[in-house]
């Protein structure tokens, strides 16, 4: 029974409610309901079925005590027990409202609280079930209820039109609150998942960068034993007769040692050379490095890098940045995937800014999701969340690539704009604009 109450898979989108949260909210409801009932009875002097009201409130308090003693308050709840506890709250509130005036009681709006909590934390089926339960209780209370507590001298009688308005307001408030809360919670979940994916990508890039330092350290450490091996091999060659059957083996050993030494020299690049030469690259060379793995297929890739017509400033020099490399590389791969025959990469720069445009002749961006482009998990590629078999040759994706690329480029100081090419041209176009002062390190060389 303990296991059935716990949320078994922490990687699911739902199951965010902790038992502690519901217990604390119910204690708050117990305090508020007790204050309202006792205030009406003893401060306002309105008579109501106090014993029955306090009994229902005490039932909620004892439920909280039982839940606290039976299970650990910090554990997450599965959808079913969480939904049942919220359903109990609706029933308990409905009974209290039945005893105190039904929909004539202004506290009837509290029906929306359990439904809103469900909308943020539980699957849609449970939210719809709880909303239906709340609407059913509200409808019954519109016709069947005890009189609203009031003074003995006058009896309050609200017209049916007002009761109908209260019912409509309660239904509308519950629906809109639930939809709004669910939408906000869903966006927060998606953003959290997408940011986690971005952090994984960045961690991977950092590990790759760290390998450069490990390679240099390994080259330094291996240099001495390799030199010893080469020295001993040469000594052995001098000692072994020329017609010995081991001569060829020793020559092979010397040649392979020399080859290893050459490889280590390429790995053990001095820090100052790495910083001053390798870590800086011109804009055109950086684009060419990312495009070169994509060449050699049916899709033609052209690069046009030149200063703006009204500018004669030198070509920008970038510092090698994993975020820019991954972001631009992802955009180029997307353009390559969707292009029919060609991809155009155009770079222009002035004294103040650098503009890079990637355009393809594919189908372009889908207008149905154009306003959502760049958000996580937005894609027109099939294969994500589909149970049907994937057709051979179709693109597949989760809708994270563009989000990650756009996020990384914006972190580097760029502004990313998405558009479809103007008629009669067809295809998608992405423009990345950097302030030159942010990324150009050429002036420092």
Which key features would you list for this structure?
445 residues; alpha+beta; Heat Shock Protein 90; 3 domains; five-stranded mixed β-sheet
- Find the CATH topology of the largest domain: Heat Shock Protein 90
Assign the CATH superfamily of the largest domain.
Histidine kinase-like ATPase, C-terminal domain
The quaternary organization reads as single chain
Distance between the termini: 69 Å
CATH level 1 name of the largest domain: Alpha Beta
What structural class do helix, strand and pairing data support? alpha+beta
The rounded Rg comes to 35 Å
Report the average pLDDT across residues: 78
**Helix content estimate:** 55-70%
| Quantity of strands, as a count | 7
In terms of DSSP E residues, the strand content is 5-15%
Instruction: List the secondary-structure elements in sequence, H or E.
Output: HHHHHHHHHEHEEHEEHEEH
Q: Can you describe what's shown?
A:
This protein is of the alpha+beta class and 445 residues long. The protein has three domains: 2-158, no CATH class; 211-278; 280-444, 2-Layer Sandwich (Heat Shock Protein 90). The protein has 13 helices and seven strands. Strands 2-4-5-7-6 form a five-stranded mixed beta sheet. The protein has a two-stranded antiparallel sheet with strand order 1-3. α4 (79-99) packs parallel to α6 (124-143), α5 runs parallel beside α7 and α7 (160-239) crosses α12 (401-411). The longest helix has 80 residues, at 160-239. The protein is elongated and about 125 Å long. Mean pLDDT is 78; it is low at 1-13, 270-274 and 383-395.
């Amino acid at each position: 029974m303990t296991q059935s109450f716990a949320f078994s898979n922490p990687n699911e989108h739902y199951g965010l409610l902790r038992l502690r949260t519901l217990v604390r909210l119910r204690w708050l409801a117990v305090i508020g309901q007790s204050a309202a009932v006792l205030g009406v009875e003893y401060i306002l002097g309105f008579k109501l079925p106090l014993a029955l009201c306090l009994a229902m409130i005490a039932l909620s308090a004892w439920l909280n005590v039982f839940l606290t003693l039976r299970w650990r308050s910090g554990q997450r709840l599965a959808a079913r027990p969480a939904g049942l506890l919220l359903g109990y709250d609706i029933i308990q509130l409905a009974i209290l409202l039945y005893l105190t005036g039904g929909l004539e009681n202004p506290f009837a709006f509290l029906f929306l609280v359990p439904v809103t909590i469900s909308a943020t934390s539980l699957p849609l089926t449970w939210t719809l079930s709880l909303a239906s339960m709340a609407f059913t209780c509200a409808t019954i209370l519109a016709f069947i209820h005890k009189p609203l507590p009031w003074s003995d001298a006058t009896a309050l009688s609200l017209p049916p039109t007002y009761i109908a308005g209260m019912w409509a307001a309660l239904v509308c408030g519950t629906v809109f609150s639930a939809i709004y809360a669910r939408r906000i919670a869903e966006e927060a979940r998606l953003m959290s998942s997408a940011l986690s994916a971005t952090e994984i990508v960045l961690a991977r890039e950092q590990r790759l960068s760290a390998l450069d330092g490990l390679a240099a350290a390994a080259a330094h450490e291996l240099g001495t034993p390799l030199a010893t091996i080469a020295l001993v091999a040469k000594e052995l060659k001098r000692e072994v007769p020329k017609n010995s059957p081991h001569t060829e083996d020793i020559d092979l050993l010397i040649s392979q040692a020399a080859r290893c030494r050459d490889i280590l020299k390429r790995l053990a690049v001095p820090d100052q050379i790495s910083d001053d030469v390798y870590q800086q690259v011109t804009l055109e060379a950086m684009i060419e490095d990312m495009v070169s793995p994509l060449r050699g297929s049916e899709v033609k890739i052209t690069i046009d890098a030149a200063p703006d017509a009204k500018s004669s400033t030198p070509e920008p020099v970038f510092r090698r940045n994993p975020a820019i490399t991954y972001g631009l590389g992802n955009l180029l791969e997307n353009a390559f995937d969707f292009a029919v025959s060609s991809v155009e990469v155009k770079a222009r720069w002035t004294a103040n800014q650098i503009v890079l445009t990637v355009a393809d002749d594919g189908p372009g961006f889908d207008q149905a999701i154009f306003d959502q482009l760049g958000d996580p998990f937005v894609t027109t590629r099939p294969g994500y969340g589909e149970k049907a078999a994937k057709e051979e040759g179709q693109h597949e994706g989760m809708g994270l690539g563009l989000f990650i690329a756009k996020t990384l480029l914006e972190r580097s100081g760029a502004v990313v704009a998405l558009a479809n090419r103007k008629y009669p041209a067809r295809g998608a176009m992405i423009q990345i604009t950097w302030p030159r002062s942010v990324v150009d390190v050429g002036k420092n060389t």
